[in-house]
């Protein structure tokens, strides 16, 4: 995938996250659910969100060709969340992750985006395995990962976090078309 390519699903435009998305990143990373399930990234301003994008997301996009993607509704052009493939410390392989603003949860957007990103991981980016981590209490995330075909394989911990997380994986070969 070209680093600036916009991908479409039935209801979404999926585009690489850029500094233009700082307001969304600031809003998303400060929702109670994000802080509880992903962690407090200390993004306390839109400027801090721009810096986070510049230092964490864009280098991975340039190095690996994939990173975080902003989800935009086709119907009204609203930025509603993110989905992406992350080279995360403490996770063996590439991790798929997603997050939506609360008012857009439960409408199928996360599955729609994650399904497309998962397909791109195997067909365009050449990945053989995708991992995912989630908290034991995040039932919605667990159900979505299972709907995507990922299997629970155990637990793990990531650096600088004592919380035991559920670890999911899917291999390209296990996908049945």
From TrEMBL:
InterPro entries: Acyl_CoA_acyltransferase, GNAT_dom, N-acetyltransferase. It comes from the Bacteria. Keywords: Transferase. One of its GO terms (molecular function) is acyltransferase activity, transferring groups other than amino-acyl groups. Residues 12-173 form the N-acetyltransferase domain. This is Protein N-acetyltransferase, RimJ/RimL family. It comes from Kriegella aquimaris. The lineage of its organism: Bacteria, Pseudomonadati, Bacteroidota, Flavobacteriia, Flavobacteriales.
